Amino acid sequence: MKIPIEYKLQNLINTYDNFIIDIWGVIHGGGYIYEEAANCLSEIRSNGKNFIFLSNAPRRASNVSRILEKKGLPTSLCRDIMSSGEAARIAFSSRSHESIKSLGKNYLMLGTKSDQGLLDNLPYNQVSSLKNADFILGIGLNENTTSVSEHEDLFRESIHKGITMVCVNPDIEVIREGKKEPCAGALAHKYETLGGSVIYYGKPYEFIYTLCMNKLENTNKKRTLCIGDGVQTDILGANNFGFDALLITGGLIANQLNIDRSSPAPENSLKKICQQACVKPIAAMPYLSW
Hints:
With 290 residues, the protein is an alpha/beta fold. It has helices spanning 35-46, 61-70, 84-94, 98-101, 152-160, 184-193, 206-215, 231-241, 254-257, 267-277; strands at 18-21, 50-55, 81-83, 106-110, 125-127, 135-138, 164-167, 173-176, 179-182, 198-200, 224-228, 244-248, 283-285. The protein has a 6-stranded parallel sheet with strand order 3-2-1-11-12-13, sandwiched between helices. Strands 5-4-6-7-10 form a 5-stranded parallel sheet, covered by helices on one side. Helix 8 links the parallel strand 11 (224-228) and strand 12 (244-248). It is globular and about 55 Å long. 44% of the residues are buried.
């Protein structure tokens, strides 16, 4: 498997009409918006193409938009967003999935106080005790915790009660300005390892890609390119759904490749990472640039 190294998105622009673009690791790294990425988004639009942000952020799309604006992205470029939080809310509000229908109404949230509100104004109740919970809503590390292991006692009790976890961010970790932080996906993985049942919303699962396509004007998969830095989320999800995928190597896997954000990936190391994840991007790019 050969993965070409690409440096300019403009070399691919005529091949695609739609671009589904990850946020964290591609548009920013936890701080302000990457200037070259913002310029690239503007060029996509000026060439008459469509793009939508696809994020595993466990919050509403409108909140993601506000965060991007605060980080310096022009409002005009924050228009179309699908987040894992939004996908989960849609699933809960429509109750279209059999797995959702059987969950019950009361949930214990894992996350911080700022994470509350995802299911507001829906017929669900947040409870403060596991004994009153029908399911766990996994958004992130619980309040006042710093590691996955601190949740283990709660998980064992919950699993003993036969309670399902709904994971609203399948990412295992995120790189925030150079430092790793565990995400809800790490909690969900631990829950499954202990024998618990987990329902996932977000990348790489099909439902969120279907929602993306519903928001795009052109629904031709062959004319759609997914761009992201997560091998097991962005690239795997795109491959599974039948999209081409462009891997940004200067984000989540930069440490694995032993490179900085601007350096091209070593061919053999990149090939090994992709083979281990059973994914095949059409190309790799150090960072999103026009």
